[in-house]
Amino acid sequence: MNEKGLTALLELNDNDTVKINLNKFRETDLCHFFTLFLKVI
């Protein structure tokens, strides 16, 4: 996921569909997402 994609996802974080998609992540995917998130910050 590139930084633009990550920013778009964060901007849509209040969207119910995005929340549902995040809930479907495997734990490893979620950890990888947060690793990318911390790198962007």
What's the structural blueprint in terms of helices and strands?
Layout: H1 3-11, H2 16-23, H3 27-40
Strand content: under 5%
Q: Find the count of extended strands (DSSP E, 2+ residues).
A: 0
What ranges have pLDDT less than 50 throughout 5 or more consecutive residues? none
* Secondary-structure element string: HHH
Query: Structural class from helices and strands?
Result: mainly alpha
What about the largest sheet? none
Cα-atom radius of gyration: 10 Å
Number of domains: 1
What is the residue-averaged pLDDT? 66
C-alpha geometry:
flat
Number of helices: 3
Question: Can you give the helix content as a percent range?
Answer: over 70%
Query: How far is the first residue's CA from the last residue's CA?
Result: 15 Å
Q: Would you mind describing this structure in some detail?
A:
The protein is mainly alpha-helical and 41 residues long. It has helices spanning 3-11, 16-23, 27-40. It has one domain (3-40). It has three helices and no strands. The longest helix has 14 residues, at 27-40. It is flat, with a radius of gyration of 10 Å. It starts with a helix and ends with a helix.
Q: Summarize this, please?
A:
With 41 residues, this protein is mainly α. The protein has one domain (3-40). The protein is built from three helices and no strands.
